[in-house]
Amino acid sequence: MGLRSFIARRIVYSLILIIVVIIVDFFLFILMPGNPAAMLMSAWSRESPGARQKEEYELNALWGLNDPLYLQLLKYIRNLLTWNFGIAIVGREPISLLMAQKIPYTLLLLGTATILSMLIGLAWGMMVIRRRGSSFDTGSVVASLIMGSLPTFWIGLVLLWVFAVSLRWLPGAQAFPVEWAGGNWPQAIVMSSSSSANSLSAIITVNATQAWNLLWGYLSHLILPLTTLTLFDFGGWLLLTRATMLDAITEDYVVTARAKGLSENSVLYRHALKNASLPIITNAAMAFGFVLSGAIITETVFSYPGVGAWVFFSLDQRDYSVLMAFFYIISLAVIIANIVADLLYGIIDPRIKYG
After folding, report:
1. pTM value?
2. Range list of H helices, 150-272
3. Which of the residues 22, 54, 151, 257 has an alpha carbon 20 to 30 A from that of 334?
4. pLDDT (tens digit, 9 = 90+) per residue, 303-353?
5. 201 and 322, same structural domain?
6. Does the residue 94 lie in any domain?
């Protein structure tokens, strides 16, 4: 089977998987305890039970929760497949609009942390392999295990106490300075236009000082949560690289490469790493697939306006419409990441045949 047939088959399987995920997602939240209408009406303790019950019924009717279960499921499938996520119960804003506002922050934070931790873990893991059996190897394994075992909220709080409270080098919360909240961002790019009888011209001016203020405003608020996630995640990549490389360097083709007189760098990077990279690719695909899931604890600790903190708030408020859309987006990202990983397998390892 050729590559095109493989891609077509994977797309068909993925579409079927998406439908299954939507159905499971629907029943998962239907079976969860709690009722958004009952929670919203809990503040109206002065009303009689009959009045509250009537109000709850009207809210459920407004949200379509009084419809038969099969009709709710069909509407749910239709809406998700057409990217109609509805209105958030809390705040009454379109969910798609809220996602568009929060996803860039999560991609910036978690995507950068994933890339940094992966690069640091791979590079450190290769250094460990070159010095395997030494005290550097043992110390690296112990350090990675310790950092991976520490809670992210503890790492975040320590960094906040040192760099935000004690030294006051960095801000401790939000994604940008508070004074920007009203739309007062630094004007890094200024556009002006001029016209004459026969022409119309536009002039774009870049203010270097304002551009740096804009960049540093976001970067300074990103450093602490980014460092927290990188410290927590890099150890897993280090241990994975070390484990896969330890298996690869004992293979016959590595022994043969050394017998031919190849340098150690050529043996490790051109031969062993290439064949040991399949588990790393799988782990990388899953990591990038879950980037949109956000970092709930880290974003909450640093009051970072990403998807994770939003989901935590929605879960606390029983805003199931937000949670349903959120898990659907994560499922799509994971499915796409797995397809990309399968394609990379065939590119990196020619022994894999699609069929």
Report:
1. 0.81
2. 152-159, 208-248, 252-259, 264-265
3. 151
4. 888 888 888 888 877 777 888 888 888 888 888 888 888 777 767 766 655
5. yes
6. no
